[in-house]
Amino acid sequence: VFLRQTMAAAARLLALLCVLVVAAPCHGAFGGKKAGVGGGLTRTPSSVTVLGKLRMAMLEWYCVETTTHMEERPCQNHAFMVKMRQADTPEKRKLLVAERSKSMPTDDEGRRALAQQSRAGYVSMYKAYCEQETPKNPDVCSNDSLRKMYQAFERSPGKSAMPL
User: Fold this and answer.
1) How many whole angstroms separate alpha carbon 47 and alpha carbon 52?
2) pLDDT of 19
3) CA-CA distance, 70 to 2, in Å (whole number)?
4) Closest CA to 124 of 90, 75, 81
5) Is 74 helix (H, G, I), strand (E, B) or coil?
6) pTM tops 0.85, yes or no
């Protein structure tokens, strides 16, 4: 029973991490507006792809090209996702998820603190990327959806909504 619960928690964690790195923000995370209503973000397949590529450009720069941020949440999440993509069997992926699950907080307060730390890390990454004189991918800084999302994260750092 404990093993099943652990594996279920690991599967939920993996899904959450995928959302953090790749998926577009969920509705309700931005001042209570639903996606596509009243200026909220839309979630079309093309917007998900575009935002995912823009986030990956930032992560690659922040975590790979400038190696000084490896201990920050965005880079820890990025490193985990890279390992997951490189794992060539379901068993290897399960082991990675189980290992990662052990490092995650189990109580609500710990999860909230981790979420807040993640939000702050992603905002810092976005700002650092866009403060460059000539970012590798200037679309990251000119994309309205991405800009609004990080502004919302910065305005409401105490909310329990998850970051990217």
Assistant:
1) 8
2) 46
3) 32
4) 75
5) helix
6) no
